[in-house]
Amino acid sequence: MSRDIGLREKLRALREGRLGLDDLYSLLDELDESDSTHAERDVAELLRHTNPIVRYTAIQVLAFTWETRLYRDKLEAMLLHDLDTDVRHTAASALGWLLRGSQDAKATKLLLSSLRSEDESAIVREVAYGALLDIWLQPAGRERTTANVLRFADRILRYAERSSALVRELDEALRAGNTAKEEAIRDALSRPDDSWKERVDWDAVAAIERGEAPKPRALG
User: Fold this and answer.
1) Which tens digits make up the pLDDT trace of 109-146?
2) Rounded to whole angstroms, how far apart are CA atoms 111 and 160?
3) Radius of gyration (C-alpha) of the chain in whole angstroms
4) What's the pLDDT score for residue 217?
5) pLDDT tops 80 at residue 162
6) How far apart are CA 9 and CA 183, in angstroms?
7) How many CA atoms lie within 13 A of 205 on its CB side?
8) DSSP codes of every residue in the chain
9) Which of 3, 4, 200, 207 could share a disulfide with 212, CB 3.0–4.6 Å?
10) What Å distances lie between residue 10 and 25, 28, 50, CA to CA?
């Protein structure tokens, strides 16, 4: 019991700005090890935190550690309106996982909107696609397997690696005074990466839009 009280106090301190962000990861380790949702409301409050890292992490704990659907409305709002890309794509992934196999109409509509939006970032759109497949194809009782986790992590890594590589090239161009290369790299950084579209089964998306379950091959 004393450990539970200590955890709740730390969460409250974080929410009120009395706990430094440097302590966030150690706190999350405690949450991951906990098999209780005694601090669920405290974590849910962090969905409104001003720091996007805290919001992102709160989603991870609520959706993937504790698997609670109580805050799905907040996740849907975050997918639509949060200003941080990482928070939006995590909200999309969380909805897919929590509602896997349900063919939930409301979440489907929101995720399709994100997928189709030209104003949305590439990673959010691709993750929204994966979430749609979870909702329409994953068996409701399916465990969050290592393969599922690795596929999600691979999406994140691809975008991070592309950005890091371009930033390194930009730094080299600046050091060398290569103005032409600098402009080309800045242009590449400003343009959306549309390679994700090649990994989407658009026939599956069309089937979902019609309210039909797509063929299982879309899971690959």
Assistant:
1) 999 999 999 999 888 998 999 899 999 987 654 555 44
2) 22
3) 19
4) 57
5) no
6) 50
7) 17
8) -HHHHHHHHHHHHHHTT-S-GGGHHHHHHHHHH----TTHHHHHHGGG-SSHHHHHHHHIIIIIIS---TTHHHHHHHHHH-S-HHHHHHHHHHHHHHTTTS--HHHHHHHHHHHH-TTS-HHHHHHHHHHHHHHHHS-TT----HHHHHHHHHHHHHHHHHHHHHHHHHHHHHHHT-HHHHHHHHHHHHS--GGGGGGS-HHHHHHHHTT-PPPGGGG-
9) 207
10) 12, 11, 17
Neighbouring residues of 213: CB distance < 8 A, sequence distance ≥ 6: 103, 136, 137, 207
Tokens found for residue 173: 């161009």
Q: What is the pLDDT of residues 16-58, one digit of tens each?
A: 777 766 676 567 667 666 655 567 887 888 899 888 888 888 8
Residue 207 clears pLDDT 80, i.e. is over it: yes
Between CA 171 and CA 3 the distance in angstroms is: 48
Q: Give the amino acid at 99.
A: L
Cα–Cα dist 8/27, whole Å: 10
